[in-house]
Amino acid sequence: MAKKVYLGLTGDIIHPGIINIINEGAKHGDVIVGLLTDKAIVNHKRLPYLTYEQRKNVIENLKGVSEVVPQEDWSYVPNLKRLKPDFIIHGDDWKTNYLSKIRDEVYDVMKEWGGEVIEIPYTKGINSTALAENASSIGTTPDVRRATLRRLISAKKVVRIMEAHSGLSGLIVENTQIQKEDGIHQFDGMWSSSLTDSTSKGKPDIEAVDLTTRLQSLTDILECTTKPIIYDGDTGDIPEHFVFTVRTLERNGVSAVIIEDKKGLKKNSLFGTEAKQVLATEEEFCEKIAAGKKAQVTKDFMIIARIEEIIAGYSVDEALNKAFAAVRAGADGVMIHSKDKSGMDIKEFCERFRKEYSGIPIVLVPTTYNQFTEDELAAWGANIIIYANHMLRASYPAMQRVAEKILAAERSLEVNDDCMPIKQILELIPGTK
After folding, report:
1. C-alpha angle 335-339-345 in degrees, rounded to nearest 5
2. What is the sign, positive or negative, of the torsion defined by CA atoms of 265, 271, 275, 281?
3. Which tens digits make up the pLDDT trace of 128-171?
4. Is 92 a catalytic residue?
5. Which of the following is catalytic: 205, 237, 332, 345?
């Protein structure tokens, strides 16, 4: 009976190093590839370009692979304990890189049944991370980008979305990441906000700014980024116009549109007012959602219902009733908003909504109740957290400070430390070197 050899792979990019390690493993027995799922990967690396099923189809057709099984965890240990292979094979680079702790775990668990760890020299000249970065620089397609949001919701506890109002801010959202103990933290996608888009143009945030005007900024972001985009659709206008919006956004590769249940003269939700805002009736709102769902072509595109009852001064009960109706009309998710800094009304909404719908995504925009961490909001039931305007709000005071310093000094020397070096700008934007 052939011995079992375990090999853990991501399988998103196949290069000579992967073929080499499979060939080496096959010399010792039947190679079982533990193919990491999206969920196993996404908190430690960027979401793979290919879906799990696509990656599985590639790997199981490689010469030397006997079987492909899902690896649901970043750690190899659960699969090793279940399969009890005679060998596990890995490149020797894990002695010194971020996988060193996992290496120690593997050695300990393989001793339990007398298994052996085979380490082979890392294939020189191959850098999987660099290959992935190069692939990212090529760009993406509307179909791939559009589908990514649903994959992220399925794979991650919380999907982290940051506002982008220009191509430059989109590049920052696309590329910014930090290493923490539990893996790489980065933004998963972008929020195309009507407020920040209009403000960046020096114009008021009004419904009259139509889709054609908004598409100018959206296209700038789409052309230089690859991550999914959620579009702020305001009220969506009348159902006939909303149908056009859905088809246009879907065709361009946008993942989701969020529409709110307000009507009449637009006023930002966070703008203080004593009078209750005019909200669409349940019937009006649901008619618009249903029309949008009927108009979309792909299953990937999402229509998310923004429920304004709480922020407009109505009760959590009324907000829940509107949210339930929106879901019955076809909404793929709900967004709930509040001006209450305690956040307790949002928590109540989330917990009660979760009892009725366990699988419908909840979107939160914790601008006013920003004392809560993503993990705390996830514990309430949230799936997507949107940082809705912070890129624009950060840029304005920075630019104003530089302008004032130059006026005061009558030269630009004093703002050197406030400005990005020209060399970095040339390196940031592809094609400007």
Report:
1. 65
2. positive
3. 555 555 555 567 899 999 999 999 999 999 999 999 999 999 99
4. no
5. 205
